[in-house]
Amino acid sequence: MRNAFVALVAGMLAASTYGADLSLTNARVLTMDSGPTYEVLDIVVHDGTFASGPAAPDAETIDLDGMYVIPGLTEMHAHVPVPRMDNPGYREDVLFLWVANGVTRARGMMGHPTHLELRDAIAAHDVLGPALMISGPSFSGGSVRDVATAEQRVRDQLAAGYDFLKIHPGLSEAAFHAVAQTANEAGIAFAGHVTGAVGLLDSLAAKQQTIDHLDGFVETLVAPARLADRQGSWFGADLVPDVESGRIPALIDALTASGAAVVPTETLLENVAGDLAAQQAREDYAYLPENLRQSYSRAVAGSARGFTPESAARFLSLRKRLIGAAHDAGVPILLGSDSPQIFNTPGFSIHRELAAMVASGMSPFEAIASGSTVPAEFYGMGETWGSILPGRDADLVVLRNDPLADIDNSRSIEAVMVRGRYLARDELDAGLADIRQRYE
C-alpha cells in the first residue's frame, strides 16, 4: 500500500505541476488586504505565485462557483518527523496530512539534520508539503551543560543553515544567557520554551523571539515564594489558585515592549486536561499510527491525575483570558497547535486551534489572520506570503462554507493550493483514505 501512495503522490505532482498557469473563477476571496470582507474575483496563478491581470490563453480554468477562499494556514509549532526504520513513510504521511487540511507553511520546533534537506526539497517542489522554517536540535539541560557548549552549539547551528534555535527546558541560567548573547550577536533568533531558571520576563529581556505554550505566564502571576519547592505541572496548572490578577497588566506590558510573539498551542492543553474517551472518538484518531495512539492515551491518562473537571476549567479559562489580553494589546499571536503531539493530529488540529483562538476573544477573521498575515508580517515576509495578493506565494484553501460566519467552517475544505499546485477534493480524499487504511 505504501507503493500505491507513492504512485498517487507522483500522479498528483504530474497532474497539477508547479509553475503551470491556472485561473480560479467565481470565487469569494478573503484576500486579507480588505479586512473581513470577501471580494468576488478571479484568482490568476503564474509560476507558483498570485498574478495580476488576465490569465494566459492556455491557463487551466477552474470554476469555484461562489465558494470561499482564504490564504493557506500556518502551523507555527510543528514537529517534523525524522525518518524511522519501523515506519519509513510516516514523515510523508504527516506532510500530506498538514497539506490536506490547508496547512501550507510550518515552523518545525524539534530540529534534525535531515530537516535541512527536506526544507530545500519542499522549496524546490520535489516533495509535497508545507514550506518549512526549521530549528536546529534543541538547547536543553541535557544537550547544553556549560557556557562553552552553549556558545559553540549556537555557532554550529548557524553554520549548518537552520532558521532559528529551539529552547527546551532545563538550561541553567548561565547557559541560557550564553545562548542568548551568542545568538543575538550572530543574528539568529531563539524561540520556544521559557527556561525555568530564568523566567519569562528575563527571557523577553534577552530577546527570545517567541514564547510557545504560554510557558512561564502563570509562574509570572504568582508571588515568587509560591515557586519554591513545587512539583512541576503542565505550564503552571498547579499555580492557578494562587494567581494574582493584578500582575497581568505588567506581564502584557513586558510582552508588548519586547516585540516577541506568542504561539499558544491551546489545543495541546485542552487535550492534556480533556476527556480521553472523547479524544479517542474523534474522526482524526484514524490518522494516528498505533504507537502514537497508545502513547497519547497514556499521557492523557497520566495527566488526568493532576486535574479535576473544575481545575481543568479554571486553567483553560485563565489561558484564554491571557491569550485574549495579549492579542488585545497588540502582541502577535501566531497560530500553532503543536502537531503531531498529544492527540493533535497533523492538520486536523489547526482547525481546533482556530476555534480556540475565537474562544479566546478573537473574531474569526482575526483567528485566520493569526495563521496567515500575522506570522508573515512578524517574520518580515508580508510581501511574500500570507495573503492572496499579486506576487505572494499561491497558497490558499477553498471552502464550501463561510468561515467568517462560523470558524468551524474552516474544515469544509474543497481544495488546497500549495505554491501553485491545486489539490482537488478527490485527490485529497485518495491520500487520506490510503493513510486511514494503513493505520487500521
List keywords for this structure.
globular, 440 residues, alpha/beta, 15 strands, disordered N terminus, three-stranded parallel sheet
Characterize the structure shown.
The structure is a single chain. The protein is of the alpha/beta class and 440 residues long. 39% of the residues lie in helices and 16% in strands. The strands form four sheets. Strands 1, 2, 3, 4, 5, 13, 14 and 15 form an eight-stranded mixed beta sheet that branches. The protein has a three-stranded parallel beta sheet with strand order 6-7-8. A two-stranded parallel ribbon has the order 9-10. β2 and β3 form a beta hairpin. The longest helix is centred in the last third of the chain and has 20 residues. The chain starts with a helix and ends with a helix.
List the helices and strands and how they pair.
Elements: H1 2-15, E1 22-29, E2 39-46, E3 49-51, E4 60-63, E5 68-71, E6 73-78, H2 90-100, E7 103-108, H3 113-123, E8 131-134, H4 147-160, E9 165-167, H5 173-186, E10 190-192, H6 200-205, E11 210-212, H7 217-220, H8 248-258, E12 261-263, H9 266-272, H10 276-280, H11 290-303, H12 309-328, H13 348-359, H14 364-370, H15 373-378, E13 396-399, E14 413-418, E15 421-424, H16 425-439
Parallel strand pairs: 1-4, 1-5, 6-7, 7-8, 9-10, 11-12
Antiparallel strand pairs: 1-2, 2-3, 5-13, 13-14, 14-15
Helix pairs in contact: 1-16, 2-16, 4-5, 13-14
Give a nutshell description of this structure.
This protein has 440 residues and is an alpha/beta fold.
On the 0 to 100 scale, the average pLDDT is 94
Report low-confidence residues grouped into runs of 5 or more.
1-16
Backbone shape: globular
| Beta-strand segment tally | 15
Number of helices: 16
Rg, alpha carbons = 22 Å
Strand content: 15-25%
Quote the distance from N terminus to C terminus: 12 Å
Major beta sheet summary: 8 strands, mixed
Structural class estimated from helices and strands = alpha/beta
Helix content: 25-40%
